[in-house]
């Protein structure tokens, strides 16, 4: 049976812990895993990307495979060829697909018609590859990913949704603070709460950033305006008080780290000062995209 990675919960908690440990090993021995030898992996990007594209291209190469970068506008998808036919055609050439697009449903549909692994490289709903790298980064700093609290402060977007589900699945506490009207997806909250019944994770939604960062080990943020939402720029008014800055950090514990998936809009979701204070963590996160995704591909393509 083929395995896809569309949501963090497509993996078990144990598999995620194995991926983290294996990613740390691959970080030291980048060419040691040749699982993708003689395999061609399509990288479909309907949205811009710096980190995800580069880390997958380099990662597939390091694992002995051929990455093929495909922009949305360069394929017949831009002229209306549907995902059902696109998936069936691509299955005749490719061994796997990594896809970044708008609709999560489109990725689920693709996974139905493409009979080999499909990896979600970000949709409007979820960004699970990012969270694998973030968990690796947390593990490197704290030596664990359980018994921690992650505070997400900002827009209730794809990253907020993915953190909630990851917390529920693995069993760490997540508090998401958003302005009113910008809460995470109800579907993600529902899944997180269900998973949390098993693991005991505490899932909290609030409109108070101070409450969220209290006792947090990790304070996480992301842009207020995600890709594809550019017309909603005026929403930034609603986010006053949601900037991760020195003032907010006064309410956090002394050992808390600040993380950001990047790209950052300094002066909006994070102050330049705090960004630079935690630059080592933030750029480790970016680097770990490469290692965590390689560990993921090793599992999916075995
Ligand atoms: N964090 C992240 O996914 O970055 P890119 O949009 O540059 O891929
Ligand atoms: N929420 C952001 C994440 C970018 C990596 C977006 O979807 O644009």
General description of the model:
By secondary structure, the chain is of the alpha/beta class. The protein has two domains: 8-127 and 287-301, 3-Layer(aba) Sandwich (Rossmann fold); 131-285, Rossmann fold, CATH 3.40.50.1370. Helices cover 42% and strands 14% of the residues. The chain contains eleven helices and nine strands. The chain has helices at 13-28, 51-62, 83-90, 104-113, 128-142, 158-170, 186-199, 209-213, 246-249, 272-277, 279-301, and strands at residues 40-45, 66-71, 96-100, 118-120, 149-153, 173-177, 203-206, 218-221, 257-260. It has a five-stranded parallel sheet with strand order 7-6-5-8-9. Helix 1 packs across helix 11 (279-301) and helix 2 crosses helix 11 (279-301). Bound molecules: phosphoric acid mono(formamide)ester and norvaline. The site of phosphoric acid mono(formamide)ester (CP) has 8 residues, from helix 2.
């Amino acid at each position: 049976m083929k395995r896809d990675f569309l949501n963090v919960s497509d993996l078990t908690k144990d598999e995620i812990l194995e991926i983290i440990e294996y990613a740390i090993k691959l970080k030291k021995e980048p060419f040691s895993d040749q699982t993708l030898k003689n395999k061609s992996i399509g990288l479909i990007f309907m949205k811009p990307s710096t980190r995800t594209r580069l880390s997958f291209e380099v990662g597939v190469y390091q694992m002995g495979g051929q990455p093929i970068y495909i922009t949305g506008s360069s394929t017949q998808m831009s002229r209306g060829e549907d995902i059902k036919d696109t998936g069936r055609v691509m299955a005749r050439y490719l061994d796997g697909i990594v896809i970044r697009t708008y609709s999560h449903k489109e990725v689920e549909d693709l996974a139905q018609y493409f009979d080999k692994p499909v990896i979600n490289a970000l949709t409007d709903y979820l960004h699970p590859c990012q969270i694998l790298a973030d968990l690796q980064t947390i593990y490197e700093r704290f030596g664990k990913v359980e018994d921690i609290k992650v505070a997400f402060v900002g827009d209730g977007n794809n990253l907020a949704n993915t953190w909630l589900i990851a917390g529920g699945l693995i069993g760490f506490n997540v508090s998401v603070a958003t302005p009113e009207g910008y809460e995470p997806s109800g579907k993600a909250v529902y899944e997180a709460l269900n998973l949390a019944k098993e693991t005991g994770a505490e899932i909290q939604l609030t409109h108070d950033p101070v409450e969220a960062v209290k006792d947090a080990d990790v304070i996480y943020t992301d842009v207020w305006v995600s890709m594809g939402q550019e017309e909603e720029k005026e929403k930034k008014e609603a986010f006053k008080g949601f900037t991760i800055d020195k003032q907010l950090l006064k309410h956090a514990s002394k050992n808390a780290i600040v993380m950001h998936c990047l790209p950052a809009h300094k002066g909006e979701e994070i102050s330049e000062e705090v960004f630079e204070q935690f630059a080592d963590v933030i750029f480790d996160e970016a680097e770990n995209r490469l290692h965590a995704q390689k560990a993921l591909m090793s599992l999916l393509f075995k």
